[in-house]
Amino acid sequence: MIPRKWRYLPDGRPGDDRSLWPGGVEGRETQAALGRRPVTVRDAIAMTKLGLPEELLSGNLKDRAAIFSPDHERFLVVLKKGNLERNTNEFSVLLYETAAALKAPAPRILLTMSTSSNHEAIRDIKWRQDGQAFFFLGGKHG
Q1: What is the widest separation between alpha-carbon atoms in the chain?
Q2: Which sign, positive or negative, has the C-alpha torsion 71, 63, 83, 35?
Q3: Does the pTM exceed 0.90?
Q4: Where are the beta strands (DSSP E) in 14-120?
Q5: Is 104 helix (H, G, I), strand (E, B) or coil?
Q6: How far apart are CA 69 and CA 74, in angstroms?
């Protein structure tokens, strides 16, 4: 028999590791009491994630998540989000100022493109040498 780990649930009641699983009776009661629900496929599709090809999303993302300008004063991030109502994937390019990035500023959304396929609508971003503009390949597949 595997020993259970005891911990406190979010509502303050003691519970074991079964309490935290959606299938457990206590888990359902706790989730309902907190106004929560299980994650659905709809939620997973609409989740905002890095707009990288799936094969690049595993492993160390250190050198792939942000595209820095040549002077490192700014960087771009591409995000992807599914839109179930339009049956598309939306890709957005966000611009951050490097010096302020750790202060959690709101980024500037430079552009958004949609595609009705699973191909990236925005890819292969490269900064111009002077760091004042960038180029990318874009398309509306599907």
Answers
A1: 64
A2: negative
A3: no
A4: 14-16, 49-50, 67-68, 74-83, 88-97, 108-115
A5: coil
A6: 6
